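Appendix B, record 7
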Amino acid sequence: MTEQHREAIRQRRERERNRRIEDILVAARKVFFSKGYLKTTMDEIALEAQVSKPTIYQYFKTKDELYCALMLPFLEEFGSHVERMAGKLSRRTYKSGKALVNDIFRAFWRSYEACPDSLRVANTFFQNTELIEQLDEDTRKIISSTGRHDFELARDVLTAAMDQGLIRKTNPYMLSDIIWGLMLGITQVMDMKATRSPHVERHLKSTLAEARRLVADAVALG
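Structure tokens (predicted):
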């Protein structure tokens, strides 16, 4: 067997593995949203994914790990955008506070576009104390550390922006919570409207744009 043949086989197996993982995640997402985390079983996820339960355990050791895999993509995606903002601030490339505020809301929208269901899973998790307590300690630590990293980084970005005279001096913790609350709240409202309107995503984008304008008008300098 040639090296080229081995590589072709390896790539095919990798594609099959990724497709199976995605099928499991899609099935888990559907069952979690339908029954809730606590009432969902791995047997039900396996049935929905049309695979055996041992097959799921090849990729996810526990239900907690599977739930974590659904939640983290949004947090990681948003965090990567905020890290880029922090880099731009350290290089002092922002010319105005409005540009920074635009980037914050753009980061949220792009993260939502990339993984909308991941945000919904995260919303459910952070609002449900009972659910948090049901997860194993390692899973809680992974989720909490990722979320904490995003929040702390966002506050650092706002603090640096204040120091550079890009936005008004205020409490960065409160401002971060206000902006985050706006973005999450708007998303949740649009989700509630989803059953009545076929154009929710378009309305979400335009509503976030209006919120971005209001925030920029309130805090941006320059």
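Remarks on this record: The radius of gyration is 20 Å. Residues 1-60 form a domain with the Arc Repressor Mutant, subunit A fold (CATH 1.10.10.60).
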